[in-house]
Amino acid sequence: MRSPEEELADLAKQRLRRELRHLESPQSRSVTMRGGAALLNFSSNDYLGLANDSELKTRFAENIGQHGVGSGASRLVCGTLGPHLELEEALASLKGVKAALTFSTGFATATGVISGLCGRGDVVIADKLSHASLIDGAKLSGATLRVFPHNDLGKLEERLKWARKNTDNDARILVVTESIFSMDGDHAPLEAIIDLKERYGALLLVDEAHAFGIVGPQGRGLGSELDLDHRIDLQMGTFSKAVGLSGGYVCGSRAWIDLLINRARSFIYSTAPAPSLAATIKDALEVISGERGDDLRRTLWARLGQFSEETPASAIVPLILGENEAALTASEGLQEKGFLVPAIRYPTVPRGTARLRITFSAAHTAEDVDALKNALDDSGATG
Ligand SMILES: *Cc1c(COP(=O)(O)O)cnc(C)c1O
């Protein structure tokens, strides 16, 4: 039997071993690593700088006073409290859909939704760069999983044709993509994907994890930005990124959501999120969808425009370096200069595409971005 020591040594040899980084400060623009100096943080998904926001911290404390710290049971037993339902109503209304369902995390949302809707005899067709949670949901479901190369519409159509030919009338065919991709920061061609899924009578699940809060009117996501929401069967996302807290959601028609309440195992067999958390997420949605959200988005996009002449498509800017060693060395070099920019390696990204993943936040100042640009220029990482 192989030992954990051997397996870890093997990971280390390939420069794939990962270790936890211990931050001694809250998640914010500048962070302090244990035993180290302060670093400018270009590594978090806290795109609007809300994770340590004073207004939300006050609201969280008040919400704890009002609703308590725990929910006591799963949603279907006795864990559904007012804040859960109010959050779901607020979210559905913001997204302009009939219903929404919230989960403990975005990961639990993806696995619960896909395995709840699909099973043996069904087909899930996913973009190759879809997040691990979407792929795991498809595997868990028992449906046939077919992957198409990233954003390749021709190959997507081939898979749809194949699925039509090889399934019964009753079967579900579910196309899965992200709207903004987590490690590349690029967009999916949503309108063309929707045209195809409609032509072949398939369903579409779009994961807006990296778009919700930062693009579209009121930060409603890429589907809203392109005015396509009404043609997307199921939209999901997370409260753990731009929203600054944690949790996940899916929204769509009343019937899909009611079905998920009956079928999504990560929803059914998991204790409801703390009611104070649900209440604070609703407060954060108010911030995001209001004037302050508009201000934060303006700042974020100004920082992105400042970083490169051609404004990036999202708050995620990858610098692909290829080998694991190159990405690790670049990340370590930046850390010595006072910047936290993570090296991302296989299996998070395909082999041979190890990279620095730079993420921007409305909390960064113009000086922070200039400093990062200078450090990257000096390091030669930008070529
Ligand atoms: C982060 C992420 C998730 C998981 O969300 P969590 O709330 O962090 O569990 C799901 N999908 C995508 C595309 C993500 O980037």
Q: Strands, helices and their partners?
A:
Blueprint: H1 4-13, E1 30-32, E2 38-41, H2 54-67, H3 75-79, H4 82-95, E3 99-103, H5 106-117, E4 123-127, H6 132-141, E5 144-148, H7 153-165, E6 173-178, H8 190-199, E7 203-207, H9 222-225, E8 234-238, E9 248-252, H10 254-263, H11 265-268, H12 275-289, H13 291-307, E10 316-322, H14 324-336, E11 339-340, E12 343-344, E13 354-359, H15 366-379
Parallel strand pairs: 2-11, 4-5, 4-6, 6-7, 7-8
Antiparallel strand pairs: 1-2, 3-9, 8-9, 10-13, 12-13
Helix pairs in contact: 2-12, 4-12, 5-6, 5-10, 7-8, 12-13
The structure holds pyridoxal-5'-phosphate (PLP).
Fold and architecture overview:
The protein folds into two domains: 16-47 and 315-379, Aspartate Aminotransferase, domain 1, CATH 3.90.1150; 54-289, 3-Layer(aba) Sandwich (Aspartate Aminotransferase, domain 2). The chain has helices at residues 4-13, 54-67, 75-79, 82-95, 106-117, 132-141, 153-165, 190-199, 222-225, 254-263, 265-268, 275-289, 291-307, 324-336, 366-379; strands at 30-32, 38-41, 99-103, 123-127, 144-148, 173-178, 203-207, 234-238, 248-252, 316-322, 339-340, 343-344, 354-359. The chain has a seven-stranded mixed sheet with strand order 3-9-8-7-6-4-5, sandwiched between helices. A three-stranded mixed sheet has the order 1-2-11. Helix 7 (153-165) runs parallel beside helix 8. The protein has 15 helices and 13 strands. The mean pLDDT is 96. The longest helix is centred in the C-terminal third of the chain and has 17 residues, at 291-307. Helix content is 43%, strand content 16%. Helix 6 links the parallel strand 4 and strand 5 (144-148). By secondary structure, it is an alpha/beta fold. Bound molecules: pyridoxal-5'-phosphate (PLP). Pyridoxal-5'-phosphate is lined by residues 105-107, 110, 131, 133, 178, 182, 207, 209-210, 238, 240, 246, 248.
